[in-house]
TrEMBL record, chain A:
Species, as recorded: Hymenobacter volaticus
PANTHER family: OXIDOREDUCTASE, XANTHINE DEHYDROGENASE SUBUNIT C-RELATED
Keywords: FAD, Flavoprotein
Protein's name according to its UniProt entry: Xanthine dehydrogenase family protein subunit M
Keyword field contains Zinc: no
Automatic annotation (TrEMBL), chain B:
PANTHER family in the record: OXIDOREDUCTASE WITH IRON-SULFUR SUBUNIT, OXIDOREDUCTASE, IRON-SULPHUR BINDING SUBUNIT-RELATED-RELATED
Domain of life: Bacteria
Pfam families reported in the protein's UniProt record: Fer2, Fer2_2
UniProt entry tagged with the keyword Signal: no
UniProt-recorded name of the protein: 2Fe-2S iron-sulfur cluster-binding protein
Organism this protein belongs to: Hymenobacter volaticus
Domain 2Fe-2S ferredoxin-type positions: 60-136
UniProt keyword terms in alphabetical order: Iron, Metal-binding, Oxidoreductase
Amino acid sequence: MNQFQYVRPSKPKAAIDARAKDQNSQFIAGGTNLLDLMKRGVMNPERLIDISRLPLDKLERQNNTFRIGSMALNATVADDKQVLEKLPLLAQALNAGASAQLRNMATIGGNMLQRTRCPYFYDTALPCNKREPGSGCGALEGYNRMHAIFGFSDKCIAVHPSDMSVALVALDATVLVSGPKGDRRIPFAELHRLPGDMPQKDTTLETGELITAVEVPEGPFTKNVHYLKVRERASYAFALVSVAAALQLENNIIKDARLAMGGVAHKPWRLTEAEKSLVGKPATEATFQAAAAIAMQGAKAFKHNAYKLKLGPNAIVQALKNATNVA
Amino acid sequence: MADEISDSKPENPKCGHDAARRQFLKQSSVLTALAFTPGPVVQAAAAEWDEKIAAPFEKVGLKLAVNGKSYKLSVEPRVTLLDLLREQLHLTGTKKGCDYGQCGACTVHVDGKRVNSCLALAVMQDGREITTIEGLAKGDDLHPMQEAFIKHDGFQCGYCTPGQIMSAVACIREGKADSEGEIREFMSGNICRCGAYPNIVAAIQEVKTGGQKV
């Protein structure tokens, strides 16, 4: 790992100032992704601003909304009794991510900012527009079996790796941010961006902006939820495809529905049209199949990831069946 | 070399010198920053970089309690907890496997929580309590999990074993060892290339059902 300067500010404002004035600096919280990238030479910040001890780790519940501090640990949130009861989809997604050791280190804010695991991004000998703008995309014509089927550009076909983010986008979360220009709220669906011509920019955050918390409304999705993660081994691997499914049922009729996918796009992929198609229908396999077909409209595969065109809808149907106990 | 001192011993006389040097570096790095960036903002920011600051080449002081013993240490910012334990404290039971948080060989407990010490900067652990595999046994009395690993032949090549045992203890303490499926899921951050998994699962189940204090 290259040398860097280390500073540990005691207040969020000092951290924001330090970051805003230094393009070559990075915030570090859990460090589980940043140190990995620094060891491989993918990221080389000259200064680390340690935000891990800032007082941003509270988990509060007020007026049917959870406010989760950005420094709260993944394991703490996943094991919280109120989260398990009121936001089971979030708890399931958190537990599907990484290992127990990493969940004890990784923070909620860092989880959503983790970077793609595209092998062309990770290998500094290979071209990658996300790592080195203008160098090209190795995955486009390369070994692209893990890559996107939605929302990609000819500059980048990488996918966003976070499981938690798939649940948060389905649950209509809001990200709370403090920055040099003050505080703002970002709907979770607008935090991550599609690659377009600037794949190096993962999010809509500006330099110096610090995620302070995420707000998640409880909603009616406490019972019929499922986070399905399809991966190459039974646990502790990134998703090939994942599905966050949450339904509100009354007498087996779907009153409200949320669906999002992971492993298919540069951002957590909310399936709004498929959600609409579910509302008012009975919770049956036929309903789920129809929604899955709508969800996959516009999907396009590359040489090695065509399997996702079939795995995707199957995973959606299975997640909805698991959420509703439909056999 | 370790600049290690037990808290029970007198202060290292070098500390005063180090503190003065650190103060000088702190000021000089602020001055350097001032030379390249607009004044007032940096001054404001610099005024609150109060808890820790270390230049890239500079060693920074930290206190750790490791296996019940207090240490005052100094490290470069880039030194990981794993390298500190192995290279400075010579606690080589904690293994360096992949060094990227993927294999679990470096698992230790920090303030009672299991973590991958390869992905933890030592400087960020200031003031925390660390337990390594060397801290589990009480003298010649092995920890029940160590006994169970021996009994069930959960070792094979042995390289992953310290990390497996640290995770296994945490797994039970976290209440995640109620079934074989749960044990496998919550032990999945520890990879064993020899495939000692069935024996490891058996050892954990025995300790869990045996009701011994872990």
